[in-house]
Amino acid sequence: MTRTAKTRRRRRRADGGYARGEQTRRRLLEAAIELFAELGYERASTRAIATHAGVSLPALQYYFGGKEGLHRACAEYITEDVRTRLGPATDRVRQALSRRDLGRAELLELLRAVVEPFLEGLATERPESWALFFARAQGEHSAGFDTIFQQIGGRLLALVTEIIGRILGRPPSGPEVAIRAVIVVGQLTLVRRARPIILRALGWPNFAGERLQTLKEVIWDGIASSLSGH
Amino acid sequence: MTRTAKTRRRRRRADGGYARGEQTRRRLLEAAIELFAELGYERASTRAIATHAGVSLPALQYYFGGKEGLHRACAEYITEDVRTRLGPATDRVRQALSRRDLGRAELLELLRAVVEPFLEGLATERPESWALFFARAQGEHSAGFDTIFQQIGGRLLALVTEIIGRILGRPPSGPEVAIRAVIVVGQLTLVRRARPIILRALGWPNFAGERLQTLKEVIWDGIASSLSGH
DNA sequence: CTAATTTTCTATCATCCGATAGAAATCTGT
DNA sequence: ACAGATTTCTATCGGATGATAGAAAATTAG
Questions:
Q1: Which of B140, B180, B227 sits opposite A40 (nearest CB)?
Q2: Angle, nearest 10°, between helix axes A67-96 and A21-39?
Q3: Which CATH class is domain B69-226?
Q4: Furthest CA-CA distance within chain B
Q5: A214 contacts B175? CB cut-off 8 A
Q6: Residue B189 has pLDDT above 90, yes or no
Q7: How far, rounded to the nearest angstrom, does the alpha carbon of residue A88 sit from its chain's CA centroid?
Q8: Which of A224, A204, A228 is nearest to A214 (CA)?
Q9: Cβ–Cβ of A186/B181 closer than 8 Å?
Q10: Is the distance between the Cβ of B6 and the closest atom of strand D smaller than 7 Å?
Q11: pLDDT at B20
């Protein structure tokens, strides 16, 4: 409680026009994502972020209220983008699940439709730093960040849990289903987290083209097999 | 390069007796593991560590040369303990692998003998903080830490890779085998990293007793299945 | 053009951090 | 008990960090 517990709220903005400053805000956001991803929350100093963005230091406080606010804004920015890119596919799957007479093969296909885009995104995410930002933030337990994170992870997990539950013919709340679901989703995030290890083990430089295809096939094969046995 | 690149080496010690100070060293080490695990490297200040250990601040520099040295010492301390507790089992497996005529069932049993103790350790590691320390350190890319980490992870991965390669009848360097091996080992670490998520999804308070048994069974069942279905 | 508002900048604060100096206290072997 | 080495302490340094004050510049509306 020694800290400045002044719970500073974000500055009011965007009532009038003044579209000029929107650009600095954007620059700051992108520089922050990059540096948070590369260095982590603590090591990425506000000065380095401001310099990297080509703006002056106080702009950071002006637009985001402080470092923590900036970090939260980064998370929201990425979350929003991921949602718009993955949302449609998952919505389609969710709708398809309303049919109660789906066979095992169809359910597996739906699972694949959820899993593959996510995996592909994690392996090749356009700005290299996005998924990395998440990986960092998750490990750092940034204040109130889990809430935002779960908007993506939680939805995905819920969807995967339902599909696996129906494949196994068990209640989604039971241990078998829940554990398997977490493992499946966790496997996908591994592609990001253990990326250097995987690449080194394989002697690959990256996950481009043919290699991404192989990666997806092997991982999917493992998932499908683990849900078929017994 | 602005930093004090004085590459300070550890103080000489332990030539004579002077066993009195060994206790402070130990206290410092244990307090550091706890705080590094709870707060991460940056947030765990040297002052907090010293206070928590009940010693004065300069003792930290005296015994470990600095914060970084202390962190490295923590990693070595944990690594050593894990090795002594897991080493015998893996050595036995390694030796059993010298036989070339092992059947699928036998190979699976060997894999299980490697995987289960590791999983159990990750789920219930005595001082709650040890595995957490690793999780943090891995994400933080502490300087030269990967080397130490790989003394455990690397050996385990190599062993798992060989077993899976023989089960699948493929060269251990190929993509199928290497990817699967990383996934299997990664699944185990998930138990630590995603621990709160798993517990919440299951409505469990912890991984004690019967629940640990269930966890092990479900995870192992998934691994075994994924290696059986062609 | 002018007044009101928004945005940016320079300079500075207060604090925390890791590290060190150097004296004081403690321990060990003889 | 004594000399020499080791361990611990108080006080302080230099530097980096996040944040702010307040003037200056830029932008918009009337």
A1: B140
A2: 80
A3: mainly alpha
A4: 62
A5: yes
A6: no
A7: 16
A8: A204
A9: no
A10: no
A11: 72
Q: Quote the mean pLDDT of chain A.
A: 86
CATH class of A1-65: mainly alpha
Closest Cβ–Cβ partner in B161, B175, B228 for A229 = B228
Mean pLDDT along residues A14-36: 81
Answer yes or no: are the C-beta atoms of A79 and A147 closer than 8 Å: no
Q: How far apart are CA B196 and CA B132, in angstroms?
A: 12
- Return the closest nucleotide (C1') to the Cα of B3: D15
The mean-pLDDT minimum among A116-120, B93-97, B215-219 falls in: A116-120
- Extents of the domains making up chain A: 1-65, 69-226
Instruction: Record the tokens describing residue B12, joined without a space.
Output: 């000489």
> What predicted TM-score, i.e. pTM, was given to this entire model?
0.85
**Is 80 exceeded by the pLDDT of residue B147?**
no
Q: What pLDDT sits at residue B28?
A: 96
CA distances from A13 to A19, A80, B163 (A): 10, 20, 60
Interface list for chain B against chain A, based on CB atoms closer than 8 Å: 40, 42-43, 135-136, 139-140, 153, 157, 161, 173, 175-176, 178-183, 186-187, 190, 193-194, 197-198, 201-203, 211, 214-215, 218-219, 221-230
B18 torsion bin: left (phi>0), alpha (psi -120 to 50), beta (else): left
